[in-house]
Amino acid sequence: MKKINAKLSSLLIDQEQWNKSIFLWLLILLGIALPFLLVTYIDSYFKDDVNVFHSWVDCWNQRTYIECQLKVSPNYPVAGLALSAGVIHTIISTFGIIERTTVDLIFRYYLAFFDSLNFLLFIWLAKLMRFPFPIFIGMILLIIPSTWVGGAVWGQIDGISLFFCLLSVICFFKSWRFNDIDTANKKAWESGIYLLVGTGSFAIYILTKQLAIFSLPFFLILGLITAWRFWKLFQYKGIVWIFLALIFFIFFFRSLDSLLEVPEQFHNSSYWFVWKGGGSEHGNKISGNGFNIWMFLGRDMRSSSHIPFLSLKLGNLQYNFSPYKTGIALYSIFISLILFTCGKAIWKSCKSKIWIEQRDKAAGYLMSLLCLFHGLCHFGFNVLLSGTHERYLYLGYPFLLIAITWFYINQIEFSLRSIIFCFFAALAYGCFVFSIMGPLPQILFPFQRHEFLASLHLFILVFLLDSWIHISQKSISSIGKISDNSNNNSNF
Fold it and tell me: Using an 8 Å Cβ cutoff, are 466 and 491 in contact?
């Protein structure tokens, strides 16, 4: 009788595990299918951007940024041009389709494929960060409007930028090998492969859209930590891998960057050309239909950002403060502050004994700190600089949300109210972007107002900066203490 009861108990346990596995696989399939369903059932998309990609096809065919029958040259680097105009050309030539609407739909399904891959990368990143339920974290990040509106639904390649950014970050994290306990059996080549894949993905990410420049402070810190980790794990073999990755990056970046013809003065570099010769001039306006603090001047958002809003005269010297120059100054101060505090916090954590005592929590803390730093880099420029576009926060929100969620789950700094408020802002931002393509329900009218979004995100930026300073000042060795006392000291 005891054997029968034991057998029945075992069957019940197996059935429960089987049901759980089925549910998780169904959730993954739903996450993969959701971007395609959104493209299928949401007819609205931003045709102007897709039409621009069509107009670039001629340049792609001639492999040149000049003399391609355009009044304005393409303003994406070579990877962005290939992944937009190049793909549209492939769709037309492969399927023989002339009808523009059908080509656009296939192009948006192609973008949805990358949105689905991003969902899987969200899960992978959440797993690396030691979330208890990484699939649920991935699903939450996927369904929040700030993630899906600006990609395939819109008809833009920002989802592809996010893909290469996520892949690069994950590969760098994987190369650190925090899961390994037996240091004697570590294989340098495994970490080296992840390092090379991450380096290659980083090169493509930079050459996709100019927005990647705001990720450079984050990747600088990420690269320094990776170099430290390789030295700690593999000593001189690690240094060899780091130099190999640098050489590979330079060669791969330069090979891609010089694929298309550009004017001689730009050193055969598409990246340099779009910044100095053929790039957009959004920064010369108050706003490129985005929102920032300069909306509060009450000027037309399309007006010049070089017109002073304040003049100060000190003796014979006169200082004119324009949104353009003042925004650059504010963002420079902002990025310098968080870069310094991030470096200081990471330096303390690298020397801490917690890597031996609480390896998993320390690794999750470091990854979350870096993701929060990356999110702030993008958040800051959207709020402080002139000329911001409506979709420019697309890359910042996923890193920001996954970071603050980790800190909340581990009872560090963030309260439930602050997490809800940040997710509400992501919802509001997604609705704002969608309202540019199609109408929102009347009850959501505040989400269509630039001033409302500017006020909301200015408040969040100040709140996040305050939380960042508190987190970066706390010693990583006090994670356990922070967890015990977080309910009394949490902000907001």
Answer: yes
